[in-house]
Amino acid sequence: MTHFNNIPIIKYEGSDSTNPLSFKYYDATRVVAGKTMAEHLRFAVSCWHTFLGTGQDIFGSAVHSRSWSGDSDPMSRAKSTMHAAFEFCQKLGMEYYCFHDRDIAPEGETFAESCKNLEEIVNLADDLQKETGVKLLWGTANLFSNPRFTHGASTNPDAHVFAYAAAQVKHAMDATKQLGGEGYVFWGGREGYETLLNTDMQQEQENMAKFFHMAVDYAKKIGFTGQFLIEPKPKEPTKHQYDFDAATVLNFLRSYELIDHFKLNIEANHATLAGHTFAHELTVAASAGKLGSIDVNRGDLLLGWDTDQFPTDLYDTTQAMLVLLQHGGIGKGGLNFDAKLRRGSTDVEDLFYAHIGGMDTFARGLLIASDIIEDGKINEVLSNRYSSYSSEIGQSIVSGEADFDSLDKWVRENGEPKMQSGKQEYLENLFNSYIR
């Protein structure tokens, strides 16, 4: 059964096209800054939002009805959904997909039955990958939806829950390895706390570190060579998340001797919730050499929660692509659309409009970012601003030769520094001039 008969193969038609089911900027084979757009962007579709999203929210029931979700038998529904996912990827020319274990296979009445369900669907996905050429970007385990994880997974005060989470991750890693996943993501959906009155923060964080070390050991045992990723998020559902932002996660990894084994999966909307910009979080991770992959979406500054809207902000995508180009790209990671339709967008065509818009916005951001770097004017201002560190005194600071005594002597001889402009308004105007 096909699910998108009325949707053509989405092709690049250029910015003058009026066809809403076409790419205006994303030309997969176009070479930009030495690589094709497809190689730069490595787009992925998320199974959870795209194929399981129903439009349900805290004030209303499901409103989205899909052809692949109508079967009453959970396993039949899961198989139909998997077929729809691969058909969708092929229509869009999408190279990758991502999943949680419980997205693609229903939970059984026992843990053993859940594992059996997962194995069956993974075998189907394996066959579909070979048939279509679509690949797995990364897999992960859902350790937050089931009531057993109400108080967390690896940070749960009950060791039984910790053990259950570890067993579930073991099978999710097996599935990811079988499907050739290029990474494996840990998202601490409930790894945090609501009140310190019932929380031993130190033990919870130490337990989480032990959990990650177990995962590292198991990856070595089974020969999984994909990149481990942690996805920062500051809040929702817990008030205090242990993976608050990129800097917090990096500090955790360094503190527990995990820094060599993990990189970060940065999500745009999570950056917003942490009070940062998307580009800030990308830069923090990239500057540490730990930018591993990206979940692309956007939030709504007027709403205080994770709205997971499709990315259409050209300023955000341009600044994101500047970070990627300046730091050598995304490696084995990709740009995964962790985004969902708005509740009122009920037609199946809306899934295509949403992904086309997101892909075009990032492709256009890539083109603009490449122009900015090639032109060099912004970088020239940046270099001039820090040029004093190429002088004699600046070099002594950078090299570590300077100390307080030598700097005290130098200041006494050279007096008061001159104020220099940061030229923010000029740079903002210059940045705007590239967006055309």
Question: Can you characterise this structure?
Answer:
- The chain has helices spanning 37-41, 47-52, 74-92, 101-104, 111-132, 159-178, 201-222, 246-255, 268-273, 278-287, 314-326, 348-375, 377-385, 392-399, 404-414, 424-434; strands spanning 11-12, 22-23, 31-32, 35-36, 43-46, 96-100, 135-140, 183-186, 192-193, 227-230, 240-241, 262-267, 291-295, 335-337.
- It has 436 residues and is α/β, with parallel strands linked by helices.
- Strand 3 and strand 4 (35-36) form a beta hairpin.
- Helix 5 runs parallel beside helix 6 and helix 6 packs parallel to helix 7 (201-222).
- The chain is globular.
- The two termini are 43 Å apart.
Short précis:
47% of the residues lie in helices and 11% in strands. With 436 residues, it is an alpha/beta fold. The protein has an eight-stranded parallel beta barrel, surrounded by four helices.
Name the features.
two-stranded parallel ribbon; globular; 14 strands; 436 residues; single chain; alpha/beta; 16 helices; eight-stranded parallel beta barrel
